[in-house]
Amino acid sequence: MIKKHWKTIMLGSLLIPTLLFSTASTESQLFEGTGELVVGEDFKGDLTLAYERAKEKALRSARLKARIFVHSVTESHDLIATEDEITTILANKAEVSGKPEYKVDQIGNGAGVLITCKLQAMVDDSNVIDAFKDRKHLEQSVQNNKGFEERRKLTEEEYDKLQKQYIETKDPVERQKIREQIEKNDSEFTAGQYLESGNRYAYAKMYDEAIEEYKKALKINPKYSWAYNNRGNAYSDQGNLNQAMSDYNKAIELDPNNAVAYYNRGLAYDDQGNLDQAIRDYNKAIEINPNYYAAYNNRGLAYKKQGNSTQAMSDYNKAITIDPNLATAYYNRGLLYCMLDNNTQAMVDFNKAIELDPNTPEHFYDRGIVYYEQGNPNLAISDWTEAIEINPKYVEAYGNRGFAYYEQGNLDQAIKDCNTAIAINPQEPLLYMNRGLAYSSQGNQVQAIADFTKAIDLDQNFAETYLHRGKVYLDQGKLNKAIEDYARYIKLMPNDPNGYNARGDAYSERGDIIQAIADYQKALELDPNDEDARNNLNRLQQK
Q1: How many helices (H) and strands (E) does the chain have?
Q2: pLDDT at 292 > cutoff 90
Q3: Which helix or strand (DSSP H or E) is residue 406 part of?
């Protein structure tokens, strides 16, 4: 039996992604960056924070130069990268190499100083490639990073403007007012540094540490909406939805136009099964940001769960219109087409998803299911093999490939795949049933019965397993046990003629002709075109 693992992919809470893959070889490149910062002479006493600001500018300068390198890496691996994705990767993986160099010069007849920072930032091609191997998390992080970058840019522009005003102003009262504004801006900058540090911890799935950094940001600025939002994401990733919900509520209270916070709260409601409220939050996120493709994608998922396939299709289409390179939306739309029995269009969408993102195993897995249903088992096996290469612990892919091998008569390979899958997940009854079928075809009835029994132990309502175990008992001449198993199957599947046919065979073998005739008649009643039941009934009635 093939397992249909049609599981839609959500674009999750917007946090920095964790990279799960590595490449065999690594190429590192260094990029030089320069940052300049002007501060008033009165601020020379402690330049620690000014140095940090200058370093941030230098690091962004280096990251800007690294964009060409990242483009070349993605193109060499046939990856399609958006500008926002490249910005997000560099914001997290372009690391300062060595110690920055600082220079301080007097300017404006001693009214101020110019701080120049020079540094080198290192970028590894493996980090770039790995980011796209976890494309879903990369997509999740893009808009969150954009929100942080927008706030950072505004803070920096305000700081430069204030320092210029401070240097040019001679009135001591006015200078004091400007100085107070500069000190407030410094606090904003420091809070942003803690936020960015928290994002990096979240990137590494060090959620406790991330939460502590977000707390530091909030201690400096208790009205920092983004810090609440990102801390909510960390709590969510820890499974603490109640605390996450509290933080999202606070983020929205502080900034009612924070579309990302509405979106993330929508995800939390979705996880809690509150689809109506999730959709309301996605609606609000879209109202604030009409180009919020992730909100359209996830609202589509919520509508699908509610059985509203028309609205779900509309949302997937909209997400793709906004971002034609959004592999997740093509994949989810393909799953919806599968649900609507339109395998032809599903195949088109799965092909596109693979073209855009060839490193997500689900894309190959579900295309394999479509190939299988279209009568192309070899292509299905090829796709499931590709899914396994990407994720060597993909239980469903092993299980489905094993069953396809079983149907082709490659029993040894079928059993091997089932063994591997069972080693990964020993609690999946379908795997034992499929392996039992392969053992039965090999004539190993003892092992077949052991596997069918194990499947039943794991799920006593797994009807098909009773049918298969009953067949082995019938072949062994254990007619009473066969009849018991067929009776259990019929109880679970009372409208399936196969159960009555099988039990009729067992009764016939045991010599219970009246019971056998009754079962064959029932099978014909359920399916008047059942030739096996008709032939068996005629055979018994002629005796």
Answers
A1: 25, 3
A2: yes
A3: helix 395-408
Torsion of CA 439, 428, 362, 89, to 10 degrees: -130
Tokens representing 207? 């959620």
Say if CB 74 and CB 132 are below 8 A apart: yes
Sort 63 into a burial class: Cβ within 10 Å, 0-12 / 13-18 / 19+. buried
Spatial distance between the Cα atoms of 333 and 468, rounded to a whole number of angstroms: 36
Q: Is the pLDDT of residue 197 over 90?
A: no
Q: Looking at residues 416-439, what average pLDDT do you find?
A: 96
- Alpha-carbon dihedral 410, 415, 417, 418, rounded to 10 degrees: 140
Could you give the angle at the alpha carbon of 287 between the alpha carbons of 286 and 291, nearest 5°?
45
Contacts of residue 378, Cβ cutoff 8 Å, sequence gap at least 6 = none
**What burial letters (b/e) apply to 466-480, b meaning 16+ CB within 10 Å?**
bbbbbbbbbeeebbe
C-alpha to C-alpha distance for 534 and 543, rounded to whole angstroms: 15
Largest CA distance in the chain: 120
> Which helix H or strand E contains 445, and what residues bound it?
helix 445-458
Beta carbons of 31 and 63 less than 8 angstroms apart: yes
What is residue 8's three-state secondary structure? coil
Determine the Cα–Cα distance for residues 427 and 438; give it in Å rounded to an integer.
19
% of the chain residues with pLDDT over 90:
72
Query: Is the backbone of residue 372 left (phi > 0), alpha (psi -120 to 50) or beta?
Result: alpha
Phi, psi (rounded to 5 degrees) for 439: -60, -40
Candidate from 96-105, 198-207, 290-299, 345-354 with smallest mean pLDDT: 198-207
38 class by beta-carbon count within 10 Å (0-12 exposed, 13-18 middle, 19+ buried): buried
Q: Is 427 exposed, middle or buried (0-12, 13-18, 19+ CB in 10 A)?
A: exposed
Quick one: tokens of 79? 């990856």
Eight-class DSSP state of 18: P
Close Cβ partners of 498 (under 8 Å, ≥ 6 residues apart): 467, 523
Query: CA 404, CA 410: separation in Å to the nearest integer?
Result: 9
Phi then psi for residue 84, to 5 deg, are: -65, -35
Please state, in angstroms and as integers, the Cα–Cα distance from residue 367 to each residue in 20, 289, 347, 352, 431, following that order: 23, 33, 6, 11, 21
CB 329 within 8 A of CB 360: no
Which three-class secondary structure state does DSSP give residue 62? Answer: helix
**Residues whose CB falls within 8 Å of the CB of residue 46, separated by 6 or more in sequence, listed in order:** none
Give yes or no for a contact between 327 and 353, defined as CB atoms under 8 angstroms apart: yes
Say if residue 482's pLDDT is above 60.
yes
Q: Which two tokens stand for residue 456?
A: 């039943």
Percentage of the chain exceeding pLDDT 70? 93
H helix intervals, 43-103: 48-76, 83-93
> 437 exposed, middle or buried (CB, 10 Å; 0-12, 13-18, 19+)?
buried
